[in-house]
Amino acid sequence: MPTTLTFLGHGAFQIRTGGKSILIDPFLTGNPLAAVSAEEIDADFIIVSHGHGDHVGDTVAIAKRTNARVIANYEIATWLSNQGVQNTHGMNTGGSHRLDGFTVKLTLAHHSSMLPDGSYGGCANGVLLKTSDGVIYHACDTALFSDMKLIGDEGLDIAILPIGDNYTMGPEDSLKAVEFLHPKVVIPGHYNTFPVIRQDANAWAAEVHRQGRSTPVVLNPGESHTLR
Question: DSSP 3-state assignment of 176?
Fold first, then answer.
């Protein structure tokens, strides 16, 4: 089966590749746009980009139920272990690790990171996935930064970029990110969950299309895109 991405709402995505389910930042409970509940989603791996509650989300509950392996920076992996998660793998910015049918690399992200109980969450990260079908970059929560040009050198098939503004880069900066990253397909995330990050994703997509650097794909929560 080809690799598919499903938008779960906010910054949460499910990626199915090589028969495995990978969740990124599974904020479902308390997410008004969540496409699925934490009790019904399946997972073999969970990747947590940083410590904020709207990204750690339901990681503990899902990992305990499914025994999914949780990948995060060292500080978050340690914190999750202390919450009773048995299967964690700690990493750090710039490091990569080969897993079951794919490689994950934690990239730079310019963002803060504090865990739900107020403890230190280490450095925030983006996520670069290399699958048998292609390369996926989820920028997660970040500002625009010029080293995105180096991430673009990886030859991105898909980039997921935040457009909500206020807490992350907004539509204008994300258009510059598209220029730096030059992905084949770009998907917006981290918008419309709450009033302060409300954006017109279709207007953003029209501008991406006008600039001609990438193909924009706007997914409603629950909708999927296949990596071709």
Answer: helix
Three-class DSSP category at 14:
strand
Give the pLDDT score at 74: 98
CA angle 190, 149, 45 (to 5 degrees): 50
Distance CA 13, CA 139 (A): 12
101: nearest Cα among 18, 4, 16: 18
Angle between helices 74-82 and 59-66 (to 10 degrees): 70
| Torsion over CA: 22, 27, 28, 34 (sign) | negative
The pLDDT of residue 228 is above 90: no
Q: If pLDDT is split at 50, 70 and 90, which confidence band does 80 have? A: very high
Domains of the chain are 4-215 (3.60.15.10)
Q: What is the mean pLDDT of residues 173-200?
A: 98
CB atoms within 10 A of CB 30: 13
- Encoded tokens for 11: 């910054």
For 26, the token pair is: 């599974």
Q: Which residues contact 12 (CB under 8 A, 6 or more apart)?
A: 23, 24, 25, 26, 27, 28, 31, 34, 57
Query: Which pLDDT score, from 0 to 100, does residue 1 have?
Result: 85
